[in-house]
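Researcher: Structure for this, please.
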Amino acid sequence: MARLNQDKFRIFISHKHADKELANLLDGALVSLAPDLIECWVSGQDITVGMDWEREIKETLAQSHLLVLLFTTPAQQWDWCLFEVGLFTRFDATEDSSVVCIYDPAGSPPGPLAHVQGVRAEAGDLVSKFLRPLCTTTWRVSDDWQRGALVPEPDDVQLRSIAELIAAAYADAVATGLAADRVDSYTYRPCHRVVLDLTAAATPDEWTGIPLDAAVVEGKDDTTSYTLSLFRAQESKAIHRWSDLVDEAGGRDAAWRHDVDQQFTDGLHGKLFMPSSEVIEVWQPPGESRRSYRPVIYEIDRRDVDDVPVRATILLVPAGPR
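Model: Predicted structure, token format:
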């Protein structure tokens, strides 16, 4: 029994804000294949003012047959796009044909999406791996679709023309993105990071571990919304505290918390410490199951003038199943 309506084949297009023109072009190109049957929803552009952002995205994803991720350059931050993919599927799945990741032919798709269909943004790959299967074997692209082929006999010239249009626009988007963020290198962080502001916490003399009232520092180079989603805290309030994350991940008496507090205390006193053997159980997007991580104190920043700790960074290293 299908969980989705069969009146339209609905495609969710996930993209970075900087690639909105590319997303709009893809929208028009896909709809042109079967105007009466294909409908696209472009992430971030089809939400009206006043809507609950996350709820609307969840509802739209639940009504979609296919998600297409436009992965242009890894130099940008992709936490929210990966969060959308996580809501639509599961990162621990061995294979998922209902998600297509279109990526730069000179690069590769993001590591967390190794289980989904990867398509290079070049005409040949776009036709053979994406556009033709979408038209002729639609039920394989999404097993929720039960109306057969969208276009049983597609026009080869049209498919090639659309593929070349997408490939050219994709190359322009990649070039624009690289020019806007041109640096000699970029940082890829394979682990989740929780960055805490210690300046508003109780005085260091009273610390016996990480202060529970330390504020979570949010931002693309600090604690991302994707990391906060592990604690179901990505949208809940303006300022999060360490206590909020601790309470969501097993509570204040959890073994992992005692370990990381000891690491923090040792770090404050310049001592070396062993990696923790305890794991923290947090929510795996879309929040229906849990995944294990090992927490480790990575950095403690101090002020130069008085050596007072001002920030702490905790890494969450994937631990796999227990």
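Researcher: Any notable elements?
Model: The first helix runs from residue 20 to 33. The mean pLDDT is 82.
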